[in-house]
Amino acid sequence: MVAGGQGLVFGFEAVAGRLAHLTVIDTLTLTLLGLRGAPAEAALRLSADVTVGHSC
Length: 56
Description:
By secondary structure, the chain is an all-alpha fold. It has helices at 6-36, 38-51. The protein contains two helices and no strands. Helix 1 packs across helix 2. The protein is flat.
């Protein structure tokens, strides 16, 4: 009995890629919030309002 196969490897690679992408996005977001302050917070709130219907 085999615990995993080639399909499982591709699944892990896809998850790792998504996690890396989200890490970059989070880092950029926090950096911009730190540098831009209130205007960046206002833009982030606007973006959250627009995308709230697409969130889980």
